[in-house]
Amino acid sequence: MARYPKPPEGSWTEHFGLDTAPVSYADSVSPEYYERERQAIFRRAWLNVGRVEQLPRKGSYFTKELAVVNTSVVVVRGMDGEIRAFHNVCRHRGNKLVWNEAPEEETQGFCRQFTCKYHAWRYGLDGSLTFIQQEGEFFDVDKDQFGLVAVHCEIWAGFIFVNVAREPEQSLRDFLGPMITALECYPFDQMTSRFGYRTEVKANWKLFMDAFAEFYHAPVLHSKQSPDKYSAAAREAGYEAPHYQVDGPHRLVSTSGVRFWEMDPSSLKPMENLTRGGLFGPWDKPDLGELPAGVNPGKCNPWGLDSFQLFPNFVILIWGQGWYLTYHYWPTSYNTHIFEGNVYFTPATNVRERIAQEMSAVTFKEFALQDANTLEATQLMLESGYVERFPLNDQEVLLRHLHKVVADWVNEPAGVPA
Question: Which of 22, 8, 29, 41 is closest to 396 using CA atoms?
Fold first, then answer.
């Protein structure tokens, strides 16, 4: 018998103190509003740019393009083992410091120092300026005053965050709050087998975050890819997820979980049966030991997944089958953004496990792209302006929360909103 936590009295929406009236999506179709978001949100909030596994040894580095705040950052593990971040700009003439063939593309690698391609100024991995070509031609240049410009960088549970403000308003840990930090003993560091994908979506960044904040759409939009039993069970449950939670600017939705392949393998696609992987991940679950209390806080039974949505643009989705994925939504304009998905598993110990992982990663890529295509249609019609207010149901409570938090930050220029 499935057991779900009871929703609060009334509705989730009212429980969280949110308005129940139809909503406006003016914040998703306005260039002016987007400019306000860039200043009030992305230049103030902590932004996840990667994981420590991307920097496996001293001298490892990667760059991250942050168009939303008009910069590129280089993240590096120094010779002392510390991870630091710097604005990716040479102090001489402003050339981009670290890049390969195309300056707009991200790159990664290993080095002992950074050398500018333009005039060969050199910098240590701690950001210090160590060499100036023809230094005697300059006028009293003090190398100690012209090191790389640091970006505030902190690490939580192996996730690397940066903050481009001159002085962050909160430490990373305070910004994340207890709902997120309760996950820090989850074995993220054991899941080093990563599959990634990236695409540009012609829709506002918040619209794609909305798509993964509710499961009302899943049995409809993804009906041809979902097992029949999943669609039927979702309809019977009223498309409801059993648990929602908010903590400051961050959100959580949990869903139930059913191992359909054990109930009726005939309802699955032949490739899923063949590879033993698919929508819910590899069928063979790794032993991760006891999970932290922050996982499945609603005590859903059976439990499927937790989707932790970290403000402003980062999602950690933890699956009951023993794997996780991350989503990033990087704005590039008011109606475009870069969507990144990364899927993480424990390293495969044999070919069968590897194939199951690859099948699961490909399946999720297809689901995400299906959502992206729908959202481009949404953006087109929202921009028409002929319909201005839209009703949301109680299962779309986290959509209301995101847009309210965005408005709070945009309208609160001094200090982080309560």
Answer: 22
Q: What's CA 106's distance to the chain center, in Å?
A: 17
Alpha-carbon distances of 60 from 56, 177, 272, 343, 413, rounded to whole Å: 7, 30, 37, 22, 37
The alpha carbon of 119 is separated from its chain's Cα centroid by a whole number of angstroms, namely 37
Residues 285, 322: Cα–Cα separation, whole Å = 6
Q: Output the six-digit token pair for 417.
A: 């909103």
Q: How many domains does the chain fold into?
A: 2
- Give the three-state DSSP class for 340: strand
Residue 20 shares a structural domain with residue 66: no
| Domain shared by 266 and 332, yes or no | yes
Q: Using an 8 Å Cβ cutoff, are 309 and 299 in contact?
A: no
- Write out pLDDT tens, residues 359-412: 989 888 887 777 777 899 999 999 999 999 999 999 999 999 999 999 999 998
Identify which of 159, 168, 146 has the alpha carbon closest to the alpha carbon of residue 87: 146
- The residues near 417 (Cβ < 8 Å, ≥ 6 apart) are 249, 405, 408, 409
Outline where DSSP puts E strands in 69-166: 71-77, 83-87, 108-110, 114-115, 122-123, 129-131, 150-156, 159-163
Domain for residue 337, yes or no? Answer: yes
Which domain, by its residues, includes 151? Answer: 47-167
Question: Which residues are bridge partners to 219 per DSSP?
Answer: none
pLDDT of residue 3: 47
Question: Rounded to whole angstroms, how far apart are CA atoms 90 and 149?
Answer: 9
Burial of 235 (0-12, 13-18, 19+ CB in 10 A): exposed
With CA atoms as reference, report the closest residue to 196 among 321, 310, 345.
345
Please, are residues 311 and 249 in contact by the beta-carbon 8 Å criterion?
yes
Average pLDDT of the residues in 260-276:
72
Contact of 221 with 371, CB cutoff 8 Å: yes
Task: Mark whether 18 and 79 lie in a shared domain.
Answer: no
Please check whether residue 348 is in contact with residue 193, taking contact to mean a CB–CB distance below 8 angstroms.
yes
Joined tokens for residue 327: 């989503």
Q: Are residues 27 and 82 in the same domain?
A: no
- Joined together, the tokens standing for residue 281 give 């991940």
Tell me how far apart the alpha carbons of residues 141 and 124 are, in angstroms, rounded to a whole number.
17
What are the angstrom distances between the C-alpha of 219 and each of 12, 158, 239, 409?
Answer: 21, 34, 8, 34
